[in-house]
Amino acid sequence: MADVEDVEHEVKPTVRFPAFRREVILAVAALSDVDYQRRVWVDGIMPFEGYGDSLTENVHALYDDFLDLPHVDDAIGEILVDGPEVEALVAFDRAFRPILDELGDAPDIDYLAHPSWGVVVQRAQRALSAMVLANAV
Q1: Where are the domains of the chain?
Q2: Please, where are the H alpha helices in 66-114?
Q3: 32 vs 68: CA distance, rounded Å
Q4: How is 13-63 classified by DSSP, letter by letter?
Q5: Which residue in 108, 66, 110, 116 sits closest to 89, CA to CA?
Q6: In a 3-state reduction of DSSP, which class is residue 76?
Q7: Which of 36, 110, 126, 134 is the most exposed place for a label (fewest CB within 10 A)?
Q8: Is 114 helix (H, G, I), strand (E, B) or coil?
Q9: 136: burial class by Cβ within 10 Å (0-12, 13-18, 19+)?
Q10: d(CA 60, CA 58)
């Protein structure tokens, strides 16, 4: 699997706001890659100068700034393509939200150490695959 910082997608004009979609894809990609999470979020090793990323930034992308997981109906056609990616994002939320509610503002390392973090990463991987496939349609 490619590193998150290597993820580049040509977003086809299947949605009204492709730049917002790209931000969602990048957030899901970060949540799908444990090596990236440890290197960037925990160890603070950024891929290039001026780059910054954290779990908090990705949470905001998926729950506040671009989407309102799990309530994604308004994002269909705007940011999301209806179908498998919507289902995968909702499944991701079902795995992640209980941990988010439990840990709140805890450090990123606490999230990565959570016993259910592997499920979150797997669901993010599925969501990322679904979003990338939707871009190829």
Answers
A1: 11-136
A2: 84-103, 108-113
A3: 19
A4: TTSS-HHHHHHHHHHHHHHT-HHHIIIIIIT---SSTT----HHHHHHIII
A5: 66
A6: strand
A7: 110
A8: coil
A9: exposed
A10: 5
Whole-model pTM over 0.90 = no
Q: How many CA atoms lie within 13 A of 107 on its CB side?
A: 8
The tens digit of pLDDT for each residue in 41-76 reads 999 999 899 999 999 999 999 999 999 999 999 999
* Distance from the first to the final alpha carbon of the chain: 21
Q: State the virtual CA torsion across 22, 135, 87, 92 in degrees, nearest 10.
A: -40
Residues 6+ apart with CB under 8 A from 8: none
Q: How many residues does the chain have?
A: 137
The closest of 63, 64, 58 to 112, measured between CA atoms, is 58
pLDDT at residue 17 above 60?
yes
Here the tokens at position 39 are 């290197």
Rounded to an integer, what distance in angstroms lies between the CA atom of residue 95 and that of residue 47?
Answer: 28
Question: Rounded CA gap, 40 and 35, in Å?
Answer: 8
CB 31 within 8 A of CB 131: no
